[in-house]
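Researcher: Quick one. two chains, 430 residues in total.
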Amino acid sequence: MTEERTFEDAQRELERIVGELEGGRASLEDALALWERGDELYRFCLGKLDSAEGKTEELGRRVEEARP
Amino acid sequence: MKVEHELQGDRKVYTVSAFNRGVASWLTRLPTVWVEGEVTEFRRQARWQSVFFTMKDPHDGSCLRVSMPRGGFDALRLELADGMTVHVFGRPELFGARGDFSLRALSIEPLGLGAVLAQLEQRKRKLAAEGLFAAARKRPLPLFPRRIGLLTGNEAAAKRDFVTAVAARFPAARILVSQTYVQGPRAAPALVTALSDLAGEDAIDVIVLARGGGSFEDLLPFSDERLVRAVADSPVPIVSAVGHEQDTPLCDLAADARASTPTAAARLVVPDEGELRERLSSLRGRLERAPRLLVERKRAGLESLAGRLRALSHQSTLSRGYAIVRTESGIVRTASELAAGERVDVELAQGGFGARVEETRP
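Model:
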């Protein structure tokens, strides 16, 4: 596991931000910052989906050498 | 039986053949006994007179070759498979031509299913008591694994089913496949090694242990204590997809999640890309609408305040036709404050005028 942002975390934060904006409690000043953050998260998630490339690899035959 | 030898000087020398025959004949004097061990390398071919396998001692790995005439073996109607524990009734024999020592079987009995089940049940209770199957140990699976480890056998079906199902749901998934033994006595240690190798690979966020259906004996390695412990201790969450719905190998209980088939496992480890995109685009739509919604909401709040403010101001009262009468001492509320001939000032919604009081009424 690395510290890099995961798709899940980004999507979860995006959901929270949308909920907060829709809740209408944020001040207009905060709302602008929230919106920009939400937009960035959306682009990040979409980018993850678009850039991910499917691949099936085989782990080397090393395990074949394992003997009881 | 007389074994011929040659005298060379004062030395008795036997040919290999004569030696083997001699030992073989001596061995026939040993009693017929029961021997217990695990079947490995079982071989049976129609053109062979006998079937062969090696019986292994599970404790120290000692091996003993076993042969049995094919006719007698077939009459037992046994489904012998590698890894099964059997009792063999037979006597030692030396096959002259090769000098091979073996146990010539007269009868073979698989160790009763009952005994194996009792062993499993005992193991299950022991591991459960240690807390290996506790719900609190189960970790959530990642929604979007960077890479999926698939540990499976060399048979194609489980791997194909899983890879196909994953690709259909989430074409961008990355899968690292490790294939090893999933049946027989080598399976459990090989699976343990493969599992730890796979968990050590870069960016593996979840591991799927997949094996198609099989007989009760085929699936026994997946209840092996070594494997069950390795599954419970794995640093990476594990999905167990072993056998069919009705099978519950112990590794299912130790895994973080279990799936009834490799296809079902695919649904657990990758999201549906279509749904994911739909959800994202709905979030995007809500994000787009949110600012206007917010501004409208703030404006509505402001207007309602302004309305209340207006309702409170005297201007709106004046505009309904009321007037304010003042004297030098302030607003007049009762007629007794006034005297006839007194000067008053009257304010209207628009403009005002000065006047004198003609008369007052109480």
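Chain A touches chain B at residues 1-2, 6-8, 11, 14-15, 17-18, 21-22, 24, 26, 28, 31-32, 35, 38-39, 42, 45-46, 48-49, 52-59, 62-64, 66-68 (CB under 8 Å).
Researcher: Thanks, that's what I needed.
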